[in-house]
Amino acid sequence: MSTDATLLTFRAMGTKVALIGPSDADPDTAHIAVDDARAVFDREEQRFSRFRPDSELSHVNAAAGREVDVSAGFASLLARALEGARRTRGLFDPTVLPALVAAGYDRDFDEVIAGARGALHPPVPCGRWRHVHLRGRRLRMPEGVALDLGGIAKGWTADLAAAAAVRAGLPWTLVNAGGDLRIQGDAPTISVGVEDPGDPTSECTRFQLSSGALATSSIMARSWGEGVHHVIDPRSGTPTDGNVVQATIWARSCAEAEVLAKAAIVGGLTAIGEVPSAVVIRDGTLILRARQIETVAA
Predict the structure, then answer these.
(1) C-alpha–C-alpha distance, residues 286 and 60, integer Å
(2) Which of 33, 97, 292, 298 could pair covalently with 203 via S-S, beta carbons 3.0-4.6 A apart?
């Protein structure tokens, strides 16, 4: 008998978000938990959206070339992003925004696929994360550098929302933000399916999880033309054309899993070593590495 129930679904950060918890949760507690979790998404989307001219991220990017003060939350996530860039030797790069815009992802994705983007531009050099200087809450970026924290911000927000729901009184929760999942609290084993990149109506594998997080990066999900998608290879400044088309990574936090999933798409399996993962390569082969969690092929 299932012990979990979907307590709330809503849209945020350009995707569907679901909050899952115990089916027998106290209704008042569940109400507070879902309100707190949704408030986290509202707050962090306002902070990190690159499509809102009044977001903190937009203000920071507009201030390139000057030193600015950022919020504690902004500084915390940016520090994680820069550490992720160091850890992956630049395969994950928070400074790919100019290249992403040049590739055509210059507005909300729903508008991109509707054909409302401008003409494609020549590749834009990336790899400028080394020039982003953060000291406490003081930030300075050179002119021409712009941040895109979309994926890691979504994972970070799933982490925060799950923690908020448990603080509100739920014994456990799972937050699913468009395939980025974070489990918090004393959860039962939950079966989580991974979408087949070649057929969105089916699964390529399932994970049995009771803790931690999953993040999936794919060049198939946000594509608007042949070879044109949202995962930029910082080494070329263009959409990556490597052998990995989808990578699902388990890590202790969703923010960390996001970093590793991007690194796997750009750099291949050698970029992530033996982390627990389900990776699909171009010929459709599924490669499973799951020493720490049980993975069941569909």
Answers:
(1) 40
(2) 298
